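Question: I have long wanted to understand how a fold can be written as C-alpha cells. Here is the record:
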Amino acid sequence: MAKLKVYDMTGKEVSAVELSDSVFGIEPNETALHSAVVTYLANQRQGTQSTRTRAEVRGGGRKPYRQKGTGRARQGSIRSPQWTHGGVALGPKPRDYRKSLNKKLKKLAMLSALSVKVKAGELVVVDSISLDEFKTKKMVEMIEKLGGSRKPLIVTSDKNEFVVKSAANIPGCKTALYNTINVYDILNSDKFIIALDAVKLIEEVYAQ
C-alpha cells in the first residue's frame, strides 16, 4: 500500500494515510484513459453548429441571366455555393457527438487516473477542507502551502458553498465532490488536492 502524508490547510503535516492498492496503485491503462478523455470531450460539444444550404438561403429563385449567348458561365441561381451570399456546400449541420463507455472501462479509467496522480506525486491529502466564510485568499494560501499549482483540483466529500465559491475566483482552479470527479479533470490538473474523508469514500466506491 502507498503511504502518503496528510496535511492540514496550513500545509502542516498532521498524520499519514495508507491508500488502497486496488484503487490508487494499479498499473494505469492508457487505452482506458484515452477512451475516457475522448468520450468526456465529445460529450461537452453542443453540436448546434449549422450553416444554410442553397435551399435555405433567401432569394435566388430566378435564373440570373439566360443560358446561352452571354459569354459567361451558365448559372441557375445566385444562391449557388460559388456565389457571394450563396449557400454553403457540405457545411456543418446539428448533430449529436455523444459517446458512451461501458461500466467496466469507465471504472478502469478512473482507477488508472487516480493511480497516475499517486505515481506522479501530484496527489495531496488534506485532513479537512472547509471554510466558514467566503475567502478566496484562504484558498490561495492553502494551495500555496501545499506546494502551489496552476491548475489544482480540489475534491471534498460534501458540498461546502464557502469552499466552492472561494475557489471559483482562482484562475485554473476546479472543485468537485468525490462522486462527481471525472478522468479528464483529474489528468488535466497538476495538483490533486483531496480531503481525507473523500479518500475513504472513493475507496469504498471503487474497491468493490
